[in-house]
Design a protein that fits this description.
Blueprint (H helix, E strand, L loop, with lengths): L1 H25 L14 E4 L2 E6 L10 E6 L21 E7 L21 E3 L6 E4 L8 E7 L6 E6 L5 E4 L6 E7 L7 E8 L5 E9 L2 E3 L6 E3 L3 E6 L9 E10 L3 E7 L7 E3 L6 E9 L7 E6 L5 E9 L2 E3 L7 E3 L3 E6 L8 E17 L6 E4 L8 E6 L5 E9 L4 E9 L11 E5 L3 E6 L10 E7 L7 E8 L7 E6 L1 E2 L3 E4 L12
Antiparallel strand pairs: 1-36, 2-7, 3-6, 3-8, 4-5, 4-7, 8-9, 10-16, 11-15, 11-17, 12-13, 12-14, 12-16, 17-18, 19-25, 20-24, 20-25, 21-22, 21-23, 21-25, 25-26, 27-32, 27-35, 28-31, 28-33, 29-30, 29-32, 33-34
Length: about 500
């Protein structure tokens, strides 16, 4: 009996002592001991991990375009670096060996040799480099530390510096939305890359216009430091559209999806789409997108009723009139966007249930794809932009709510002797899209990076980079890349005192 009473008595005594100690430190009248001890804290990004897929089939040796832009830290919208901008840091590129699907965990078809990793230092300048042992390994792990982690962006690129797909962050829940096997994609390669130290268990589900496809019914194991790929199109025969959902039940992977023909080149990467939501924004419909298609995936059990609004240079436009588009649950739907004509635009989708979405725009080969994405915060970067005189690089900037304003800066390659051009300030009216051509740095024939810095106090800004050939921005489309945020700092939540550690 005495022992049973001693335990709660000891706990009560400990609580009383802690209360008295907290009262002495805080002083009377300052609140309870469990009150917040501080505000949110802003800290510089000090490490970033990305994983890059191999180059698309039959497209040559893999290259990575990368840049770190720490100079914009704390200077949103100014276009100039602060006096305390960090220097130094390093990015390290390491090859990931390929593991055939179904192989035992930890086995690889080719063991890594003594090829050293590639290291890059020096933030503030673009680097385009071949990946380690490109003839032997396809996927590449990229880790950046110090100043090279701040405002970091990396993309798989051609040797001429044309970024084709963003290197992915590791995650546990990812969506990709693209065309079907009957509409130009007899091959859909899903790459699963694990740069971590523990095995990842991955479950893949697919939605088509015929509903949920059950081909990949078993989980896939991706060993640590390895990657594999599956042709998931073999489970979606005859489809007009397909959405791929990648989830992990243990560990994390980076994922990428390539669509194209069974032989030869002419394929394209699908950008990762936003998680399902009731409102989405898709940027990147070019002036040559009269035959573009919209893809809508509805993962839940309730049919979606979707209102589609296009933001053009002339303001809001309803490509389907006042008609609400019906998209069945547990399926993906394809809609033609022919009424847009030659208008450059972004799409705003509003739904009664969570959806995710993407677009296909005709162009070289299978064409190019964009997807629902987040607005640019702090700064957005496209690392790989070619300076060839035969190609035109442009930005599509959209403001779905209030007016937006941003500076656009071009950054030359490391070692370039070009003259740095001053930042360009752009204004986007509410519910409009503007298109601007981005020229390389004066006197340069080398690839360059683009930095988009939204100005504080304005509405959200969505952006996409496009590359066209033979005829300015109305020429044949080669590439679309949604502009992603490249942060230099993150905000830590405030901490609070808590007694939970000693409660029974």
């Amino acid at each position: 009996m005495i022992r049973r009473l001693a335990i709660p008595g000891a706990v009560a005594l400990a609580l009383a002592l802690l209360y008295l100690a907290a009262w002495k430190v805080a002083g009377p009248g300052t609140g309870s001991p469990s009150a917040a001890t501080g505000d949110s804290k802003v800290v510089a990004v000090s490490a970033v991990a990305r994983t890059c897929p191999p180059p698309g089939p039959n497209t040559g040796v893999a290259h990575i375009a990368m840049i770190a832009v720490p100079g914009h830290q704390g200077q949103q919208g100014t276009g100039s670096p602060p006096a305390s901008a960090a220097t130094g840091g390093m990015a390290r590129l390491s090859a990931l060996p390929f593991t055939p699907a179904g192989a035992a965990t930890g086995t690889a078809s080719a063991q890594p040799d003594a090829t050293p990793p590639v290291t890059v230092s020096g933030p503030g300048a673009l680097t385009v480099t071949a990946v380690p042992a490109p003839a032997k390994y396809g996927s590449t792990s990229v880790t950046a530390t110090g100043a090279m982690a701040q405002g970091f962006e990396a993309e798989v690129s051609t040797g001429q510096g044309l970024g084709t797909v963003t290197c992915a962050h590791p995650g546990s829940d990812m969506w990709f939305v693209g065309t079907g096997t009957a509409t130009g994609a007899p091959v859909t390669r899903l790459y699963l890359m694990n740069a971590g130290t523990i095995a990842a268990t991955v479950e893949v589900s697919m939605l088509t216009d015929s509903g949920v496809q059950q081909g990949l019914s078993d989980a896939i194991t991706v060993g640590p430091g390895q990657y594999l790929w599956e042709n998931v199109a073999r489970f979606t025969g005859g489809s007009q559209v397909q959405a791929v959902h990648v989830q992990t039940s243990s560990g994390q992977v980076a994922a990428a999806v390539w669509q194209g023909p069974a032989k030869g080149s002419g394929g394209a990467w699908l950008p990762q789409a936003s998680a399902p939501d009731k409102q989405l924004v898709i940027a990147g419909l070019t002036t040559a997108s009269s035959a573009a298609r919209l893809f809508i995936a509805v993962p839940g059990p309730v049919d979606a009723r979707v209102t589609v609004t296009a933001l053009t240079a002339h303001g809001r436009y309803l490509p389907f009139g006042s008609t609400v588009q019906d998209a069945p649950s547990g399926a993906a739907t394809s809609l033609a966007l022919t009424s847009l004509g030659t208008s450059a635009a972004a799409l705003v989708l509003t739904s009664n249930v969570p959806i995710t979405a993407g677009i296909a725009v005709p162009g070289n080969g299978i064409g190019s794809f964009s997807a629902a994405a987040a607005p640019v915060t702090e700064q957005g970067i496209i690392a790989g932009n070619p300076a060839s005189g035969q190609l035109t690089v442009g930005l599509l900037l959209s403001a779905p709510a209030g007016a937006a304003s941003a500076t656009v800066t071009v950054v030359p390659s490391a070692g370039s002797q070009s003259i740095e051009a001053p930042p360009q300030t752009v204004q986007v009216a509410p519910q409009h899209t503007i298109v601007i051509t981005v020229a390389p740095p004066p006197g340069s024939h080398d690839p360059f990076a683009i930095v988009v810095t939204p100005k504080a106090g304005f509405g959200p800004l969505y952006a996409a980079r496009v590359v066209t050939s033979s005829g300015g921005l109305s020429g044949p489309l080669l590439s679309i890349l949604p502009v992603q945020s490249a942060l230099t700092q993150i905000t830590l939540a405030p901490t609070k005192d808590s007694y939970s550690a000693i409660l029974p």
